[in-house]
Structure formats: C-alpha cells, structure tokens
Amino acid sequence: MKFGGNMRQQTRAKMLKILRISHAWLAILVLPWILLIGLTGFYMNHSRAIINFITPAGYDESLFSTWPSGVEITRESALVLAETIWPNEEVTKFASKPYHKRPSYIMDLPSGRVIVSRATGHYYVKYGFTRDTYAPDGTLLNSKRYWGSIFKTLHARGWLSSRFGTWIADITSLSLVFFSLTGLFLWWMPRAKKIGRMVRRG
C-alpha cells in the first residue's frame, strides 16, 4: 500500500514538474504576442483617442488648386508615371474616378497603387499601410501611416502580412487557454492535497 502511495506521489510530482516547465516556457515564448494582443485590443476600444495622439497633422490638399507648377494629366502620362515609380511592373487595373473629391486616375500595380490628380498632377503612392503624397515635380509632401489598419491586422493575424494567415494569432489564443488551465491546475493541486488530508483526518 505504501509502495502504491509512493508511486502516485512520484507520478504527481513528475506531472507537476512537466506542467511548471511547460507553463514557464509557454509564457516566455508567447509573451510578445500576448502584449501585442493586449495593446491592439486596447486600441480597438479607444481607437479615436489613440489615433489622434499618434497621427501627425495631415497635409492640406486644398493647396493643390493653387499650386504654381501644376500640370494637367492625361491617361498616357499617368501610366508613364505609375510605371516610373515601380519599373518593370505593369498596371493591372486602371480607373478614372474621384479621389478625395478630385477627378483622378487610379492605377493598381503588383507593388501598390498610384493615384494621380488629373487637374494638377499631384499624386499619391499607396503601398502596404503607407500613403505618400507628392507634388507634380516628385517632391514628397506628406507621408501617412494607416495605424488603424496596422493595429487591426496585428490583432487578427499577429503579423503585418498575410504570409502566415492567422496562424500566429491562433497559436497565441490557444496558448492563452493552455496557460490559464495549467495555471489553475498548478494553483489547485497543492490545495487539493491539503484538503484530502483534512478529509481523511476528519
């Protein structure tokens, strides 16, 4: 009987050791993503206040209409501009429609999107989570980061690209579940042993 009791104690001690090691290493491995999910989740609840705090003042696009060196853009010159920005890439989609209430040419390429104001020649280059605004002569006027999209993508994927799909976020979520259950088990086991002894003595 004593031998059986020792075996159970050894098995329990071994299991607790494995759980403690797994619990500790899991916490270390997923800590960056736990912080990431926490911070991006906080952003999603307070997005307006955070965006206003971290986003610099935007560029006043009304200056386009009084630009001294503006030039009217044709379809052909817009295509040349787009292919100059990303050499060796072809325009995959072309549209003529308003952008920010200004008649524009909108062109999609593999690396991003080029939007040209037809009346003045000002243009935007959109790639990833960034939009750069340029004067007709190519001078950079403003650079904008789409922080809302960045935070939402990080929260959903755990990564800024779609390369890993949602695997990183899924692994982090399952790790949090495992971390909670092992933490609860490690907290309960010593107390369950004390309660068992008290019951047996009673």
Could you characterize what this model shows?
This protein has five helices and six strands. The chain is of the alpha+beta class. It has a domain at 69-150. The longest helix is centred in the first third of the chain and has 44 residues, at 2-45. The protein is elongated and about 95 Å long. The two termini are 21 Å apart.
What is the number of strand segments? 6
Number of helical regions: 5
Q: Which geometry do the CA atoms define?
A: elongated
In sequence order, what are the helices and strands, one letter per element? HHHEEEEEEHH
**Biggest pleated-sheet summary:** 6 strands, antiparallel
Question: Which segments are poorly predicted (pLDDT under 50) over 5 or more consecutive residues?
Answer: none
Q: Could you give the order of strands across the largest sheet? A: 1-2-3-4-5-6
Report the helical percentage.
Answer: 40-55%
The span between the termini is 21 Å
Our Rg estimate from Cα atoms comes to 29 Å
The mean pLDDT is 84
What structural class do you assign from the helix and strand content? alpha+beta
Strand content: 15-25%
Record keyword descriptors for this entry.
6-stranded antiparallel sheet; 202 residues; 5 helices; single chain; alpha+beta
